[in-house]
Amino acid sequence: MIVGLVGNGGVLFAVSKNKRLRSARNIFLLNLILTDILLCVTAIPVTPWYALTKNWLFGALMCRLMPLSNSCSVFVTSWSLTAIALDKFVHIIDPTRAPVRVRQAALITLFIWLVCSLINIPYLMSYDLVDGAYYVPENATPFCGHFCDELNWQGETPRQLYGSTVMLLQFVVPLAIITYCYSRILEKVAKDMIIQNAQFSESLSTAQRVEATQRKKRVNYILIGMVVAFIGCWLPLTAVNL
């Protein structure tokens, strides 16, 4: 938690002090930093404590707000990564097009937070704080402590439908967009005129051609790695929350 707060806080401080860092793409990156900080101050300290003690000590309000903040953070992270992929896609595929301005990026970020918050309202309303007697039959010995749990769904079917919708909007759609954008960027890189133009390529030395080829490979590895990392980080969490 401390490492996350210090690291992300340092980046926020650097951007606030250096106007040259206030670009549209960095606005999306700052959005990722804000979600990391939100998780650092909510999920990281609270979740392990609750898992170890089996007793919710943070009140009914936090019982609803913490799952909401965690879910919103995941949503916002997914769509911020999608926005970054779209920004790169437009910039590389059509470099003559006007880039996204800082004001536009800020409005997109605000829109992402608004939509993600609205999508997670059912998640907010489903949680409630109960004592241990809720889980045992009447006149039986109750469990000790208080518990924050999903209790307000009207049956299992609505919960499953909502979970499937969340998986679609939080994981499947962003993954499809990110994969499409980066695959098109890979195609663009593969058609790099420095390599494809034989006449110009012949004017390069062997070392320069090798360096250009290695540079293309690094770009390929980075883009493929970003897609794989997205799947590896969010698929398990999304599947568990179904």
TrEMBL record:
GO MF terms, alphabetically ordered: neuropeptide binding; neuropeptide receptor activity
InterPro entries noted in UniProt: GPCR_Rhodpsn, GPCR_Rhodpsn_7TM
A GO cellular component entry from the record: neuron projection
Residue ranges occupied by any G-protein coupled receptors family 1 profile domain in the UniProt entry: 7-242
UniProtKB keywords: G-protein coupled receptor, Membrane, Neuropeptide, Receptor, Transducer, Transmembrane, Transmembrane helix
Coiled coil region boundaries: none
Principal cellular location given in the protein's record: membrane
Bilayer topology annotation: Multi-pass membrane protein
Name of the molecule in the record: Neuropeptide Y receptor type 4
